[in-house]
Amino acid sequence: IDHHDEKAVLALLDDLHPADIAEIYGELDLDEAKYIYFLLDDDTAADVLTELPEDDKLRFLESLPSEVIAKRFIDKMDSDDAADVLGQLDSSTQQEVLSHIEDIEVAGDIADLLTYDEHTAGGIMAKELIKVRDSWNMNTCIRSMRQQAEEVDEVYYVYVVDSRDVLKGTLSLKRLLLSPEDIQIRDILNEDVISVRVDTSTDEVSNIMDKYGLVALPVVDGVGRLVGRITIDDVVDVMREEAEKDYQLASGITEDVEISDSVWIHTRARIPWLLIGLLGGVLGSRVIGGFIGILGEHPHLALFMPLIGAMGGNVGIQSSAIVVQSLASGSMGLDTNWGKLVKELTIAFLNATVLSLIMFGYNYIVDAGWPLSLTVSAAMFSVVVFASMFGTFVPLLLKRINIDPAVATGPFVTTLNDIIGMFIYLTFGALFYALLL
Amino acid sequence: IDHHDEKAVLALLDDLHPADIAEIYGELDLDEAKYIYFLLDDDTAADVLTELPEDDKLRFLESLPSEVIAKRFIDKMDSDDAADVLGQLDSSTQQEVLSHIEDIEVAGDIADLLTYDEHTAGGIMAKELIKVRDSWNMNTCIRSMRQQAEEVDEVYYVYVVDSRDVLKGTLSLKRLLLSPEDIQIRDILNEDVISVRVDTSTDEVSNIMDKYGLVALPVVDGVGRLVGRITIDDVVDVMREEAEKDYQLASGITEDVEISDSVWIHTRARIPWLLIGLLGGVLGSRVIGGFIGILGEHPHLALFMPLIGAMGGNVGIQSSAIVVQSLASGSMGLDTNWGKLVKELTIAFLNATVLSLIMFGYNYIVDAGWPLSLTVSAAMFSVVVFASMFGTFVPLLLKRINIDPAVATGPFVTTLNDIIGMFIYLTFGALFYALLL
Question: Is B25 in contact with B48 (CB distance < 8 Å)?
Fold first, then answer.
């Protein structure tokens, strides 16, 4: 690249898939990347742009005049990808780019797509699809499909509409292969078509495609007219974002953030959980304050306070993760709530026994004395059992009162377990020291 | 159902999709479920069985004789679903069921699939696919496809093989629609076909399909012969399992568990992290032990020990979650490592300032005295900044030495932050009490 050796670079790139080129691009600086771009043919360049990570895409587009964006990129893309790319630019640039697109219909489609919220079916659908009239026969249909197919990348289903564009059904490609040429479309279409409205949320779209095992889903407007289709690759992106959000929620991050987001967004996403933790810690300090006398007399009690607190938090998070996940996926298994409780209790008793025996052994070896040894082991046992019950019930309860358990369980469970753990530990401490000394 | 009113039940079920029937089934007991099953026609019954959660499926199959399983279910399923179902039974039952399948070729396909590890391409592929010879012309090809299409549910691509069954390329349905009838397949096939080997891991399969935006992927054996194909719905399942595993790892669960797994599996999955936490707590108690003198003199220091510990843990987990996720998705953004560090430091300073000011305000209001107030706020500030640095570097370091950061970061970061947090807090405590009293 440094020597601007066009032939060598092109020879290298020629065999690569656009996704691979996009990966290489990530390692280049802006000028090198631009240089490569203009060597590529238009279709490949557009595909590479689609594959780039969001922020690289934006940086790259901002460095180009809008006419180039329109002619070299937007015009060669599917309408949903084009709308995604344009959606990242500010609205005056959007207008400018759209005005440079020659085919007014294409520009109109993209402008349409830009109006939908990105978290709805409208926001992820594409306009390119193959549709036929229910009144046609197979011959007319095949002729029309050949024509339409030139504009569509992948064909999964053929959609059947009536004269007002209302979705009537689908025609699978298998059906097309197997049917005679003179049959009426009306007689072979599959009427059991599952569709979504433009304002259906992407979460629901992904659930529907997943549940019914679909690769493409037609999108209709308020009166049932076919306006677009969603393909599974768009939904896979939605699913990945969902999974990332869940992972971040489990780690105490309340907004879906990327490593490249601004400092301000990161701070805003992290502070809520920290504030809840702070509140919990302050409440905890009031609990401990109630035992300040015994702590003054027996400061060794403080040795295991962090351990008991951390253990309650860990156990609670483990139990709630399982429940939150089952609630989210809808697979609660065949056990009744009662059965789940018994099972969770058994697991908790096993873990609690192991952990408190280990602690008893440790305290025996370091010669911590009976009161402290008994306090630690008894508190450990109670805290583990209690925290796991608590971790199981909080998400079920939140679900019952219609709060998303994934959002609220983490902070709730950890914080409350921390406080209650301290109370249990110090109560046992007061008890055993009073009894045994 | 209770009145065995066949007609009414069937009328109800008739309009439902198999996935919906599977959901209803989850709310019935075994006898009711069996009753409904035998009312359904074979194809629907097989589809419903595929949609059931794993453990329900198993319970249901175990209650049926193997001849019924073979004739009513396995025979009506796609080979990959059939292999999944059979894979859950023990091997003698597998043999018995297979012996009841009439079409020896179908039985052979399923037996083949059963031999692959479920975490490889072979384990999730299906045998049903449409293939044509590269030496045929379009007419022969269409005729053969019509015949083959009857056995395949969905057609995405037509695979082209040579006389030895070696994969040569694909023929998109779009190509088929657009090409004249007398052309040779050899001249229109797309040779740039991406395929995987039977022993490719499912993770890699899912990465490849995702990266290149594929809906179906051919699977070849060691010498390049076409043996099956993977469709995107199988991969979506793999992706969901991956995401669940990551979520569980973030919650301290080391094996991929379902709520319906046995008590023993649950205990085994949870205890490792608890033991690490225990070790951390014990080490923490040694650290606190070093300050036992000052704790005896000033027991109020103990009030905020759990708060400081929890805060270090929370901040560390937040920082590491972002890094772990970026490492996993490969999108580390355009910042250099140095840039990331500066950014993370800025976020940490902001959070640390807010949190320590709040604590200072609180301690001022409750009149905690200068030494304690200063200790808590200074320790809070240092712990938040330190924990977020630590949370950023541990995953990067683990990645460098080839340990999966997702597995090891959680326990590592929380435990070490807990210990170091205690040390910082008590050191500040010793300092401020010595200076100010």
Answer: yes
Number of Cα atoms under 13 Å in the Cβ half of residue A134: 17
Is the CB of residue A317 less than 8 Å away from at least one CB of chain B?
Answer: yes
The angle that helices A30-39 and A42-51 make with each other, rounded to 10 degrees, is: 140
CA quadruple B75, B80, B85, B90: dihedral sign: positive
Tally Cβ neighbours within 10 Å of residue B222: 8
State how far residue B212 is from chain A, nearest Cα, in angstroms.
6
What's residue B336's pLDDT? 61
> What whole-number percentage of chain A has pLDDT above 90?
17
A99 and chain B: CB distance < 8 Å anywhere? Answer: no
Chain A contact for B195, CB < 8 A?
Answer: no
**Token pair belonging to A381:** 């046992």
CB < 8 Å from A in window 101-160 of B: 142, 145-146, 149-150, 152-156
What is the three-class DSSP state of B88?
coil
| A interface test, pick of B14, B322, B377 with most A CB neighbours within 10 Å | B322
Counting beta carbons within 10 angstroms of the beta carbon of residue B38, is it exposed (0 to 12), middle (13 to 18) or buried (19 or more)? exposed
CA triple A25-A31-A36, angle to 5 deg: 50
Express as a percent the part of chain A with pLDDT over 70.
Answer: 87
- In the numeric block, the tokens 């080839």 are attached to B402
Judged by CB atoms within 8 Å, which residues 34-73 of A form the interface with B? 53, 55-56, 59
Under an 8 A CB cutoff, do A263 and B233 touch?
no
**Integer Rg of chain B from CA:** 31
- Please report residues of A whose CB lies closer than 8 A to that of B287: none
Tens-place pLDDT, residues B199-210:
888 888 888 887
C-alpha to C-alpha distance for B67 and B317, rounded to whole angstroms: 53
Domains of chain A, each with CATH number or no CATH: 6-115 (1.25.60.10), 131-231 (3.10.580.10), 263-436 (1.10.357.20)
CA atoms of B267 and B393, how far apart (whole Å): 31
Read off φ and ψ for residue A29, nearest 5 degrees. Answer: -90, 175
Q: How far is Cα B352 from Cα B318, in angstroms, rounded to an integer? A: 14
pLDDT < 70 stretches in chain B: 1-15, 23-30, 53-55, 150-156, 173-174, 177-178, 329-337, 408
Distance between CA atoms of A216 and A176, rounded to whole angstroms?
17
A188, A146 in Cβ contact below 8 A? no
- Nearest Cα residue to A205 out of A193, A216, A196, A213: A196
Under the banding of pLDDT at 50, 70 and 90, the label for residue A304 is very high
As given in the structure block, the two tokens for residue B283 are: 């080490």
CB within 8 Å: B210 and A236: yes
Distance from CA of B112 to the nearest CA of A (A): 25
Q: How many CB atoms lie within 10 A of CB A38?
A: 10
Cα–Cα distance for residue pair A423/A418, rounded to 1 Å? 9
Q: Which helix (H) or strand (E) holds A170?
A: strand A167-172
Opening angle at CA B292, ends B286 and B294, nearest 5: 140
- Give yes or no for a contact between A290 and A430, defined as CB atoms under 8 angstroms apart: no
For B292-321, the pLDDT digits (tens) are: 999 999 999 999 998 998 888 888 888 888
Verify whether the Cβ–Cβ distance B307 to A325 is below 8 Å.
no
Rounded to an integer, the average pLDDT of A212-230 is: 85
E runs forming strands in A221-379: 226-231
Q: Of B285, B298, B341, B350, which to mutate for an interface test with A (greatest number of A Cβ within 10 Å)? A: B285
Compute the Cα dihedral for A411, A412, A415, A418 and give only its sign: negative
Q: Beta strand pairing status for A226-231 and A216-220? A: antiparallel
The predicted model gives A4-14 an average pLDDT of 66
d(CA A437, CA A298): 11
Gap between the Cα atoms of B50 and B71, Å rounded = 15
